[in-house]
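Hey forum,

I'm writing up a methods section and want to include a predicted complex as supplementary material. The small molecule is 2-acetamido-2-deoxy-beta-D-glucopyranose. I've pasted the protein sequence and the SMILES. Can someone with a working setup run it? I'll credit the forum in the acknowledgements.
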Amino acid sequence: MKFLVVAVLLISALAMATAQEATDACYFPTCVAPGATCLSNTTNSDTYFCQTGYYCNGDYDTSLDFPTCVKYVDVGGLCDTKTYRCRPDLTCYTQGAVPTCQKLSYAALGEDCDTSLQCANSNTECNPETNKCTLKFVNNAQLACSSSFDCAYGTFCNVTGTTQKNLCLAWKANGDECTDDYQCDYASVCSPKVGSTPVVNVCNPQFSKGQDQICTESVQNLDFGLTNGVPAFDCDIGQGLQCNGTACVPRVASSCNATQQCSNVFESCACGSVNNIAGSRCVSQVNFNTECKTNINNYLTCLKENQCGAVNGDVTKSSCAVEKCSKYICNNPCVQSAFSCGDAQTNFLCIATNGASFFAPSMAIVLIFAIVAMLF
Ligand SMILES: *[C@@H]1O[C@H](CO)[C@@H](O)[C@H](O)[C@H]1NC(C)=O
Ligand SMILES: *[C@@H]1O[C@H](CO)[C@@H](O)[C@H](O)[C@H]1NC(C)=O
Ligand SMILES: *[C@@H]1O[C@H](CO)[C@@H](O)[C@H](O)[C@H]1NC(C)=O
Ligand SMILES: *[C@@H]1O[C@H](CO)[C@@H](O)[C@H](O)[C@H]1NC(C)=O
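Reply by user p_vandermeer:
Happy to help. Structure tokens for the complex are below, copy them as they are.
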């Protein structure tokens, strides 16, 4: 779909939740408490995860005999790339020689900003008069859009491919011909029109196709975790349907073992038990049911009500989607019980954190930094 791009499969964080790939040694992840040891185990190094909001200091200092889970630096805090690490959703940004953790690159076109660093798209800048992200001015002329991320909520970039200027045009209506999802409403997908010969693509409402109706897998954004936009999916998941490449069909479970992966993209191979690949089975990472469908539809309604613009990439904590609609991301019935530990995107989007605004390093931090700088 259009809200965010890319039809990539981003369920790896979820796969961790219920299953380890059977080709691994079948260890299960352990959640380590703040201050507790996260001792690296070279045979088994990736099974320790610090509680969300903490990281293992043994990850950068391998000489530590007993590395522990230490807290990430919050917004406005002093940072470096080693000891004082910013929370993964923040950037260590240096202004006036003081590096602090800041929220950058989250605002879509038309959304509020204090500085251009907050505008997500490289073609945009913060207009100092309106405090909104707008297309940049170059040589006194405003740039034309080059992708739909350059367009405000409710519009898409009409890329002409000619010398004719690209314009942001209003979303097409359902049933109108289209060439990509961004041309359609958030709650619609650009996909084959049912019953058309030759097949034409039109804007179809999300989840609107019944069993055996035409679909294409290529239009699907399969991120049912909702951290990379919303799934672009025209088969009715409420009826348990998914696209087999040509038609919407009921999901068929596949099987797996040490050498054979699950063939269904929504499944991952779960170990029978710890350190035992025997008894591995394919487990669905997505609940194809009405609760999932309702949640996604409510999320789309929320994005529309709040007129959240499109941002290229994963949703971030300060984005409109998370600020206004996080309950649909954080209490998402589409995905299997999440392993709420470690640095997975959803964990960060859903933990409460300090919401200080941009460039608010405390005076104490500035002073400490100045003193430290004098010492070395
Ligand atoms: C590392 O993990 C392996 C496999 O679980 C275990 O046999 C070994 O004792 C562990 N080593 C340490 C130092 O904990
Ligand atoms: C939109 O783009 C098409 C080419 O893809 C062009 O023919 C058409 O004139 C454009 N529409 C507007 C309003 O610019
Ligand atoms: C998908 O399902 C349809 C309808 O059941 C069937 O005709 C078609 O062969 C299937 N395609 C693939 C690639 O499995
Ligand atoms: C895995 O499953 C495939 C297909 O069922 C089978 O051919 C293969 O021998 C199995 N491999 C192992 C290691 O069990």
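Some notes you might quote in the supplement: The first strand starts at residue 30 and ends at 32. Helices lie at 12-18, 290-305, 320-330, 345-350, 363-375.
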